[in-house]
Predict the 3D structure of the following.
Amino acid sequence: MVFAATYPERVSALVLYGGMARARWAPDYLFGDTEREERKSSEEELEEFVTPGGLEAMAHSGCPSADEEQVRAIARMLRYGASPGSFEALYRMNMAIDVRDVLPLVSASTMVVHQRADPWVRIEHGRYLAQHIPGAAYVELDGNEHLISAARVPELLAHVMPFLQEAVTREAPEPDKVLATVLFSDIVGSTARAAELGDARWRELLAAHHGRVRRQLARYRGVELDTAGDGFFARFDGPARAIRCALAIRDAVGELGLELRLGLHAGECEVLDRKIAGLAVAIGARVSARAAAGEVLVSQTVKDLVVGSGITFDDRGLAELKGVPGEWRLYCVASP
């Protein structure tokens, strides 16, 4: 879903089977797992993973109609696919993912397929996807599997293949909106520093600053969109790379004796002559303005999109962003 929203020109069609936008319960997502359910499920699945015969039981729960041979094959796949430690890490990562903000940005032809009694992913998850991805086709199969059995493959293909055949022959319009991560930076106390150094020395320092920022943008595949005075505005097609670039910029410029404030946001951006505009850009600028000296501050959306990257955050609480409706939860990047 994130790929389809980020690279619409590279996606002909999207089929989501047994999928979800988020796993955890929230006040506006009532069918997700509560903290208690998540903890119980995590403990049970990890115990199954390390117990003799446990993976066979897990395979059977995900595909009740599978025969003995199929159950053994699924269990073998699970056993070879991950160690107990990596399995637990993957489980926790999946529980933390939240791509609800991305769904309205998926412009590719999309089909959502879900089995009505899916034992691992409740049917409400599939219905939510279909309701929030623009124009999505929805197919609800009368079954009780998550891991699809051989017997159900013909039924699945009967829906999916005609959809794909039509989707790949349809000429896709030029995308005018994409999911992008925007980065804003500016030098803390630049006016006072310029007055202290004088024009000539300040210009030299500013040129060194610009050079270091641009080297990191090139390294992390960021695109420089604007430079106003001592600030940079850049876009990225991946939020994790944008965060790592922001940290690298902060450290590289810090060697010059300068402190930066940096802010990031990910969202819908309008594409205009290779430039981007829209509310997401304004939010990114406002997030940057809220950052303290030496701080990389990000929106909740960015945090949710980098689950599993190893990047950790400190919660900075809710904030009002000038000119932007509502309250926004912000996070400071705590580690690379």
